[in-house]
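Anyone up for a design puzzle?
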């Protein structure tokens, strides 16, 4: 009991430390992720709302090894990794019907499955077995018995990285194939955002397990030394400017107005009242960071049919433009996006939840995206990425230095087109060009089978969401193109499998 209390105190201390760093303007990185996490998902569209759909989904746990790359005694420690299977459309054991495997990312896998439906929507066309695997250290797949113990210190967190995660997926998929007599079933891995990066890397590292990969909105080129010059916030600005020049101008001018008001006596109280904040603002940067997060979130998840950027700009350009000043217009945009509330929590995007803490560790260890505000043609005040500041913050928070070059060393990145077209195959990199993270995505074909499918109006991971009747034609066609490519991979595999059987019979 005493040791448990000690773990809890250490975990609480870490959460408080994270919160204090956020409060002191910790270097902000827009989160990845399949879906927005600021507003509840419409229950009418969620997987959990359908009792028949929920009944089709069976939950299992695999006894997973803690460390796949070492042979120390503690490497053999195990934990229970959650995965889910939908058998509804499967062709059955020994049928060689494919396995569509969704690779979970930085969230509980059941949360993502409320919106991720590409693998389930297309299972009937292929008689596919549908698998979804949770990422270690998230959801219920927690080593060391609890999240508190797993995140306790640098030693326990040291097993929390992408290489271990995809090795987990390899072990689970081989286990599933053996358990359900599906040894000859080809595996197509699917992932979005960070999970899309994992899917592409899985195909590169484990081509003997995955026949192909669909990597949706995977910014695999957004790392140190290969990061795009016109990056994330360039696209955010572009999205708003193309939606409404007047809206863009209002946002661009608002930062100076916020500072002007804040500099006056009792100015922060005035801003707190104008923006109906749940707590009085301690500094103007708290409000500016909140607005920054809203604009980035809206651009990244600018999904039809509502198109959040248009929602914000319609509010800024509408009645508020006639009835109030710049700050009133900006607040109207906040209300339109965040919906009407009793008050607005400016720390909403930074709450140190278990998921946010896990992702903060990942960005401080290996997933370092050098995202900042460029001064060129931006609606944001200049604020370039400060690498030294970021390193010092991560060292203070977690006691480790970020491994800036490890991702590109381990998975590649430099000269991607020159290298991958010689040995890689069967990867679809899909992107929506209104997604700010598309600037770090693969936007042109690398070879005949490592291909890019982009849509001008698309947003983050939209193509792997459940299909809906309201989907625009361009989205329908994007998914259709992806399905046809996957069908081609599977057809070639089935032909090779048949030829191999004939060879063995003939031999």
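Challenge accepted. My sequence:
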């Amino acid at each position: 009991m005493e040791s448990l209390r000690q773990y809890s105190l250490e975990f609480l201390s870490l959460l408080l430390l994270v919160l204090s760093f956020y409060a002191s303007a910790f270097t902000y990185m827009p989160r990845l992720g399949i879906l927005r996490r600021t507003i509840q998902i419409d229950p009418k569209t969620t997987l959990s709302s359908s009792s028949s759909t929920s009944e089709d989904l069976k939950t299992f746990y695999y006894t997973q090894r803690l460390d796949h790359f070492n042979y120390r005694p503690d490497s053999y420690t195990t934990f229970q990794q959650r995965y889910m299977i939908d058998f509804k459309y499967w062709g059955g054991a020994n049928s060689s019907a494919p396995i569509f495997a969704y690779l979970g990312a930085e969230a509980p896998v059941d949360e993502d499955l409320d919106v991720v439906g590409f693998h389930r929507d297309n299972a009937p066309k292929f008689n596919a077995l549908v698998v979804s695997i949770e990422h270690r250290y998230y959801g219920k797949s927690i080593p060391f018995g609890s999240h508190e113990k797993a995140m306790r210190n640098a030693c326990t967190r040291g097993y929390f990285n992408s290489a271990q995660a995809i090795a987990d997926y390899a072990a689970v998929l081989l286990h599933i194939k053996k358990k359900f007599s599906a040894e000859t079933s080809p595996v197509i891995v699917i992932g979005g955002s960070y999970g899309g990066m994992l899917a592409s890397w899985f195909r590169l590292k484990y081509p003997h397990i995955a026949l192909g990969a669909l990597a949706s909105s995977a910014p695999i080129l957004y790392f140190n030394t290969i990061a795009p010059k016109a990056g994330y916030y360039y696209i955010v600005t572009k999205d708003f400017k193309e939606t409404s020049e007047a809206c863009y101008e209002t946002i661009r001018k608002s930062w100076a107005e916020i500072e002007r008001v804040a500099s006056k006596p009792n100015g922060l109280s005035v801003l707190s009242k104008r923006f109906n904040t749940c707590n009085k603002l301690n500094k103007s940067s708290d409000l500016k960071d909140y607005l920054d997060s809203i604009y980035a979130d809206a651009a990244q998840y600018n999904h039809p049919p509502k198109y959040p950027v248009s929602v914000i700009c319609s509010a800024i350009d509408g009645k508020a433009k006639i009835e109030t000043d710049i700050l009133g217009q900006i607040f109207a945009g906040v209300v339109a996006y965040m919906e009407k509330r009793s008050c607005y929590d400016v720390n909403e995007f930074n709450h140190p939840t278990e998921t946010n803490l896990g992702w903060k560790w990942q960005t401080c260890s290996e997933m370092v995206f050098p995202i900042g505000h460029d001064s060129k043609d931006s609606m944001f005040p200049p604020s370039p990425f400060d690498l030294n500041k970021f390193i010092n913050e991560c060292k203070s928070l977690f006691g480790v230095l970020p491994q800036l070059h490890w991702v590109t060393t381990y998975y590649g990145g430099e000269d991607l087109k020159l290298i991958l077209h010689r040995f890689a195959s069967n990867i679809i990199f899909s992107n929506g060009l209104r997604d700010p993270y598309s600037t770090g995505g693969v936007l042109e074909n690398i070879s005949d089978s490592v291909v890019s499918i982009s849509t001008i109006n698309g947003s983050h991971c939209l193509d792997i969401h459940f299909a809906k009747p309201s989907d625009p034609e361009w989205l329908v066609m994007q998914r259709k193109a992806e399905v046809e490519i996957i069908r081609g991979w599977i057809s070639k595999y089935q032909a090779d499998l048949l030829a191999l059987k004939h060879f063995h019979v003939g031999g």
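A detail worth pointing out: Residues 473-506 form the longest helix (34 residues).
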